[in-house]
Amino acid sequence: MKYSNTQLSWLVILRIAIGWHFLYEGMVKLMNPNWSSVGFLLDSNGFLESFFYSLSSDPSLVYLIDLLNIWGLILIGLGLILGFLARPACIFGIILLSMYYLSHPPFAGLRYAVPSEGSYLIINKTLIELIALAVLFVFPSSSFVGIDRFIFKK
């Protein structure tokens, strides 16, 4: 694919911005010894509520979910920022954001213990970031600006 300098610049900026968000969220969770996903899981609502509740029922499973969440966020973030395996990072980011979205869908009538910072109906920040990752997946910039450029030479 050929991009104009402006297109490539904005794709790279988008990739780095999303990467920073993932990395920062992972680091905050890593640095907080009291952080756990259990509260988020128990606050789930919607048609997958029982699935997310079941994930919080076993402490060893919660520990594994916490590790996967923290290190997934960190590694996805680094991959996007550095342009290192950026397309797999996009896929794993989409999967992770899908889980967040399905756990707390912004549908009419659903209430959560932790209020959101806005009023949403179907489309929220999580879904928008997920869509942005899909855009980055289909318009890869890391093969031009990033470590992938050196790994996947054409």
Question: How much β-strand is present in the residues?
Answer: under 5%
Overall mean pLDDT: 90
Overall tally of structural domains: 1
Q: Helix coverage percent of residues? A: 55-70%
- For the secondary structure, the number of strands is 0
Low-confidence stretches: none
CA-based gyration radius: 17 Å
Overall form: globular
Distance between the termini: 12 Å
Helix tally equals: 7
Description:
With 154 residues, the chain is mainly α. The protein has one domain (5-147). It has helices at 5-31, 38-42, 49-55, 59-82, 86-103, 125-138, 148-151. α1 (5-31) runs antiparallel to α4 and α4 (59-82) crosses α5.
Task: Give a quick summary of the entry.
The chain has 154 residues and is an all-alpha fold.
Helices and strands, with pairings:
Elements: H1 5-31, H2 38-42, H3 49-55, H4 59-82, H5 86-103, H6 125-138, H7 148-151
Helix pairs in contact: 1-4, 1-6, 4-5, 5-6
